[in-house]
Specification:
Blueprint lengths: L1 H6 L2 H7 L1 H5 L3 H13 L12 H7 L1 E2 L4 E2 L5 H13 L6 H9 L7 E2 L6 E2 H13 L7 H13 L9 H13 L15 H6 L19 H11 L4
Antiparallel strand pairs: 1-2, 3-4
Helix pairs in contact: 4-5, 4-6, 6-7, 6-8, 8-9, 8-10, 10-12
Length: 226
């Protein structure tokens, strides 16, 4: 329709804000690479920028980390971006991400935030992409953390976090049915309960506006698993 035409294509939208966005950190570069590859774009030459080189330049050999060595999202999204592009993942960054795991099996965004399910689900996906076995102690304890944080209704409190958890479940090669609670509730059913009649997802039912990020995350979670 005309409104969609006025907004342009998703790739055009990414291009318009590219420089300002990727300057915010390696996590932004990694997310951009993931989005471009999903949309059929070339991350080595997009809007005059080689995003792969830009991401690789964000790797600090001395600290063995992308961006902030204490930031889970910097490491995880950089790893996922490189994996999607078929590029080599620095072993040091993988170890840095492993070292950020908390004693309870989860990951926090940065020190002081405390472990959260979305950070943990993202770390699980990145470690799997880097070749860490699901049977590795770090991933086993991360999976146990996600199970401990799952609520009786099958989800993780809101649509966004539940989407992240489902994406990790998918990456593990598991089914939503493997995560049905004692009350008989599955994560996928919980996530779909956040969808409005118009197709959009809300973040939670206290915030009833259409939420673009929640909707995008839900689509990734629902259509990449069973």
């Amino acid at each position: 329709n005309s409104a969609s035409a006025d907004r342009g294509t998703p790739l055009e939208s990414i291009a318009n804000d590219l420089e300002s966005y990727i300057e915010t950190g390696p996590d932004a570069i990694g997310k951009t690479i993931l989005g471009l590859i999903s949309a059929g774009g070339d991350p080595t030459s997009f809007n005059g920028v080689d995003l792969i080189n830009r991401l690789q330049d964000a790797y600090d050999q001395e600290n063995e980390a992308f961006g902030d060595p204490t930031n889970t999202w910097h490491q995880a999204l950089a790893i996922l971006g490189l994996h999607a592009a078929g590029e080599e993942i620095p072993v040091g960054a993988v170890q840095t991400l492993l070292d950020l795991q908390q004693d309870n099996g989860g990951w926090e965004y940065t020190p002081g935030f405390g472990s959260l399910s979305d950070n943990t689900a993202l770390a699980i996906q990145a470690l799997l992409a880097a070749g860490i076995s699901p049977k590795d102690n770090a991933l086993s304890s991360a999976i146990e953390y996600l199970r401990d944080m799952q609520t009786a209704d099958g989800g993780w409190g809101d649509s966004s976090t539940t989407s992240f958890a489902l994406m990790a479940i998918n990456a593990l090669g598991q089914s939503s049915q493997d995560w049905v609670t004692e009350a008989g509730k599955s994560p996928k059913a919980n996530l779909l309960a956040f969808q409005k009649a118009n197709g959009a997802f809300v973040y939670n039912w206290e915030l009833t506006d259409d939420n673009l990020m929640s909707s995008a995350g839900a689509l990734l979670a629902i259509f990449d698993g069973s």
